[in-house]
Structure of Glycoside hydrolase family 19 catalytic domain-containing protein:
Amino acid sequence: CTNCYFAANNACFLGWSKAQCDSVDLYKWCGDGGSDPSTPSSPKSPPSTNDSYPSSSADTPVTMDTPVTTDTPVTTDTPVTTDTPVTTDTPVTMDTPPPTSGGPQPVNPQCGGCSNCYFAVNNACFLGWSKAQCDSVNEYKWCGDDGSNPSPSPSNAPNPSITSSPKPSTTSSPKPSTTSSPKPSITSSPKPSTTSSPKPSHTCSPKRTPSSNPSTTKQPTLSPATSLKPTPTSPPNTPPSPPGKSGLTNILPKELFLRIFPEALPIYNYENLVAVAEKYPEFANTGNADVDRREVAAFLGQISLESGDLRYVEEINKSTMCQQSPKYPCAAGKQYFGRGPIQLSWNYNYKDFGKAVNLDLVASPELVATDYDLVWWSALWYWNDERWNGNIHKVVGLPGGFAKATFIINGGLECGVNPPNRDSEKSRIASFKKFCELLGVAPGDNLSCQTADFPPKAL
């Protein structure tokens, strides 16, 4: 790439200026004679951690400004397919500028100067992809027979999955906010996952700093618990479970779980998920099939973003994440970074979860990422727990319930009229819509928490 390069996806954003490229921490400017890296960088990092903090406590949670770097934003407006991208409906109007005189000039008006896999909305050329990989994403166009950009060897090509590359938000040109988080307000490209090797050298995932807003949560960079070598997989096409049945195993049979998460770490064992879900008999088991399917789709959509499709169990850029108080102490030498499918973070959440499971997780937070029961339990506890800002299980079945769930999980960063991480919420919504389609239920309306209704005036 001789323009703006995103190594995690092996994508070249054509026609960008150096200033635009430098404004996104995950991108690298290669316009001054740079060349394609020999291998793509390691995974982006999924998601945000969910934190909730007691409003009465003196320890205020943290600012809302860290990036979601793995499962980077996808549009909620592009067509849902079961092919792997998490996009739905029609693409949002692009704000990305056309190629400048310094960048590659279009050779084919439909390919924008790209000779590999092209996404016109973002003017992005995904290098090193095969035609089959490109064709698996409806919004991409195969330009391998024309264009001008060289492609690296196919061995470096990522494989399709449900994540997307971060892009800056724009007014007249792509430019994210002054935070280190890529926060696009334009359409994000659905893209394949990358290998789970160590994080990219140029990736940064700043930690939030204390803030008085108890709804804020951190967006972590995650690390794999084991080395993975993703290979192209078939899209989940298992038919929906029979109508009229509730309960997790009826709605999400093992075959469908494995098809949705083909690269899940071994610790994310389906049988353990089922066993832990039985501790919460109301979960996806109201007797209303649509409500219960929608709750499972919401749970999958949220943990998909948080854990990078269950391929990560810990953050890469680890930090202490301690806000010490008499009620919520920290143990010497221990760190409370995000762990598990919902990325439990901060000492106060470890303390509360430990109390629920009768373990001292302040002293042993690592158990959340190493114990096969606790890893799922942390997510289902968070989902069903009575928190200061609501109970996800109780609100997710209500009108606008998915937006309320996102607010409880990561409201400080993704909700309100102008949140720091706009596209992180888009990714959640797109995943939710995709899983609703797989489970045979309508997603409903009012899915976004990026409105004046958030934060709610009264909780």
